[in-house]
Give the backbone structure.
Amino acid sequence: MARGTAVPLNRTERIAAFVLGAIAAITVVDLIVLLVGRGAGANVSQGVWPVIAVLPAIGIPLLLVALVVFIVLMGLRSRRLAAGDARR
């Protein structure tokens, strides 16, 4: 393979990237909704607000774990390509 040639992501890397993006999007939207709700004076101790308040505490660590997994997958692929193993 020529140097500088882009290598497409394999299926596992695409799934990891999608999970990473989905967790990030849900967490950011949840944080925005929580901030707007608190700013509007909503009682965040009743209804669905406790669930909305807890989601970032779950989403951010999951996001970090998914990011580490994605980086490891990319490193493994790079190592395999450098070694000449064309396994996909």
DSSP finds two helices and no strands in the chain. The radius of gyration is 19 Å. The mean pLDDT is 85.
